[in-house]
Amino acid sequence: MIWIEFAVLIGMILIGSQMKGIGLGVMGMVGLFIFLFVFKMKPTDPPLDVMLIIMAIVTTAATLQASGGLDYLVSLAEKIIRSNPSNITFIAPFTVYFLCLFAGTAHIVYSLLPIISEVSAKKRIRPERPLSISVIASHLALTGSPMSAATAAMVVILGYPGALVDIMMICIPACIIGILVGCFSVFKKGAELDNDPIFIEKMKDPEFAKSMEVDTEGEEKSLRPGAKTSVLIFTFAIVLIVIAGAFPNLVPSFEPGVKTLAVAANGSLSMVTIISVITHTASAAMMLITKTSTSDVTKASLFTSMASAVVSVFGVVWMSSTFMNSNNDIIQQALGGIVNEYPWTFAIAVFVMGVLMFSQAATTKTMMPLGIALGLPSSALIAIFPAVNSDFVLPGYPTLLAAINFDRTGSTKIGNYVVNHSFNVPGVVAIGVAIAVGFLLGSFLL
Questions:
Q1: Is the CB of residue 295 less than 8 Å from the CB of residue 24?
Q2: Tens digit of pLDDT per residue, the chain (446 long)?
Q3: Where are the alpha helices (DSSP H) in 43-87?
Q4: Which value, to the nearest 10 degrees, does the dihedral of the CA atoms of residues 148, 305, 81, 98 take?
Q5: Which of 37, 217, 269, 408 has the lowest CB atom count within 10 Å?
Q6: Which among 148, 222, 34, 86 is positioned nearest to 389, based on CA atoms?
Q7: 35 to each of 39, 116, 196, how far by Cα in Å?
Q8: Which pTM value belongs to this model?
Q9: d(Cα 212, Cα 217) in Å, to the nearest integer?
Q10: Cβ pair 66, 297 in contact under 8 A
Q11: How far apart are CA 342 and CA 132, in angstroms?
């Protein structure tokens, strides 16, 4: 019976991922409907914690975008990328990583992809190289950023004081090393641009050839008056969240009692409460101080993407957790022995689920509780955490498609076999190295 139920689970995820947008969410609900009314499974609680975290964090990021703060950060990143074009294969991905680490979203990379493509092409460096590893870097930044929904979900799942600091202490250096090795993996990838037959053919077009020579850097974009102020407020919110995670004694506590979404059983505030209150307060401060209207926030592209993320997590995570809970004993019996003896093998399962789910937060919420049930220590789960970034394997994620479209030279592409695209080599290398380094760091830091 479990294999039929598993087939339903995978089938709904595959269909939902092909539908894109809220497809994962609605097909997850179809799967849950089948589990409830056909297989008579008892439903778990819906993933309200992750949904609330996504709403809080994305609202704050959208406020930063509406107030001009993201434009200011992108302008700084652009200057860094243009400052040393000869080393763009190394400079671009790390610039992207730290920018996304700060903002807590990979979608900010859209503003930098055309710049990376243009600068590398003008320097006759194959754009595929910096573009591919930069997209991977934007994803890896989410597993370690205190402002990302995936990291916040991981903190809630681990559920012990100081979990956020431990995640940052392990995942940030591990992912940085992973990205560095990923840069080397693409440093000489493909033919040099001047020898690339596709580029040579394109250069026969006079207009295209002219565009490859003309400097299009242009004038600096004008920023909103409160752009820098909004970045300072956003930064202060990040610092407060990190302090609350590192020093739980500074956070108000109450009498021990029944665990709720807002307060833990020991009376301490949950990270859901802490993150939600701090981020929404920061949003209010940005709107009031920088005079950003609420309508501007709700029209921001980041805010409109929130509905899709919340619906997707709601459906697919609820379906997956119901399946896992119903078959918990069978799963533990089948996987418990090998996972306890070789903890790294659980990374394979997380990686595969990440490929199917197209969401770091959903994969985290689905798989990490299973890791805890299998008896994996927190150090191993944190080391494995970067594996949730495997949404690049099937080339349907928006950041991958954007990079392909922005590369006018045609070097960044999807191969004839779909999975042999520009992002798989740097992605697998960077995540594999990050996990290995994470295990190494966890062995003596935790």
A1: no
A2: 788 998 999 899 889 877 877 888 899 999 999 999 999 999 998 988 888 988 999 899 999 999 999 999 989 999 999 988 999 999 999 999 999 999 888 888 888 999 999 899 888 899 999 999 999 999 999 999 999 989 999 998 998 888 999 999 999 999 999 999 999 999 998 888 888 888 888 888 888 887 777 655 545 667 888 899 999 999 999 999 999 888 888 888 888 888 888 888 888 888 889 999 999 999 999 999 999 999 999 999 888 888 888 888 899 889 988 998 898 888 888 777 788 888 899 999 999 988 888 889 889 998 999 999 888 999 999 999 999 999 888 877 788 888 988 888 888 888 777 778 889 999 999 999 999 999 999 998 87
A3: 48-66, 69-83
A4: 0
A5: 37
A6: 148
A7: 5, 46, 52
A8: 0.88
A9: 12
A10: yes
A11: 31
Amino acid at 98: F
Q: How many CB atoms lie within 10 A of CB 363?
A: 29
Which tokens hold the place of 323?
């399946």
What are the domain boundaries of the chain? 43-445
Q: CA–CA separation, 13 vs 358, rounded Å?
A: 9
Q: Which alpha helices (H) appear in 67-205, and where do they start and end?
A: 69-83, 88-103, 113-122, 128-140, 149-158, 163-186, 197-202
What is the rounded distance in angstroms from the CA atom of residue 371 to the CA atom of residue 384? 10
**DSSP annotation string for 352-378:** HHHHHH--HHHHHHHHHHHHHHTT--H
How far are the Cα atoms of 11, 50, 366, 380 from residue 332, in angstroms, in the given order?
Answer: 23, 25, 15, 17
Q: CB neighbours of 338 closer than 8 A, spacing ≥ 6?
A: 345
Q: What is the CA radius of gyration of the chain?
A: 22
Residue the block writes with tokens 């439903």: 43
Amino acid at 21: G
Q: 323 and 5 in contact (C-beta within 8 Å)? A: yes
